[in-house]
Structure formats: C-alpha cells, structure tokens
User: Which sequence fits this backbone?
C-alpha cells in the first residue's frame, strides 16, 4: 500500500513538473518602458503549432482598447481576445517560424520563444534578422 501511494505521488509530481516545463500556459506580459504588467497571454498548442491569445488586460484604462493601427481583419478589433502569436513550431529548445503582433503599433514581427526557466518565457520579436529586434521576458501566471 505504501509503495502504491508513493507511486501515485511521484506520478503527479512528474506530471506537474512536465507541465511547468512547457511554453503552454498563461503568461503575464510586462511593459518594456514602465516595467508595469500589461496583460495575460494564454499560449496554447493547436495542430502542432503554438499560438498566443490575450485573455486579460491588467491596466484598467486599457481594458476596452481596440487595435486601431492593425491591418486587415484585426483592424479595430478588441485587443482582449486577440490572437497575437501565430504559428510557432518547435525547433530544439525553442519555438520559431511564426509571428507576433504588437497591438500598440499594429505591426507584425517574426518571433521565437524559449523557456529561460519553468516560470520565465523569453520572447524575441524582430524584423529581418534576429539582431534587429527586441526581447521581452514574460512570467508564468500561477493558478
């Protein structure tokens, strides 16, 4: 009986450790200039690719913002609920080959993401080559 309980405990510990080692989950975004938390993005997998959707806006005065500078189908859409990260594919320890939309300026950038630690996500958005861009660090939202 003791071994059975220990086995179950180890299984659930391993399961929670595996989940925390994934980019999938909810992440808090931080403003580069102010250091203020801006939003929560849910990163999810669909058909083998990674996507990110804004599920919460943390600044009260921006909760009803729309993407006025976006092009195409995203123009004037609410930022809350918007899919901003599209089509990243796993490549070793990082995910790349997709894009990220900055709803503040309406621009799309190539991007890649990787885990710095279980609770810290590194996101690099760039134009052309990776050297021409900026890096953000998002923190995992605890349940």
Assistant:
């Amino acid at each position: 009986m003791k071994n059975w309980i220990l086995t179950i405990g180890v299984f659930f510990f391993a399961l929670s450790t595996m989940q925390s080692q994934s980019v999938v989950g909810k992440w808090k975004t931080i403003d580069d200039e102010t250091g203020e938390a801006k939003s929560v993005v849910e990163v999810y997998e669909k058909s083998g690719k990674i996507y990110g959707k804004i599920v919460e806006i943390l600044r009260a005065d921006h909760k009803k913002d729309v993407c006025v500078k976006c092009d195409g189908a995203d123009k004037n859409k609410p930022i809350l609920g918007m899919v901003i990260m599209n089509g990243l594919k796993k490549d070793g320890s990082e995910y790349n080959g997709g894009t990220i939309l900055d709803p503040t300026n309406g621009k799309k950038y190539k991007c890649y993401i990787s885990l710095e630690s279980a609770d810290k996500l590194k996101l690099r958005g760039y134009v052309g080559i990776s050297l021409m861009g900026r890096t953000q660090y998002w923190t995992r939202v605890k349940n």
Q: What stands out?
A: The first strand starts at residue 25 and ends at 30. Strands lie at 25-30, 37-46, 49-57, 83-91, 94-102, 107-117, 120-126, 133-140.
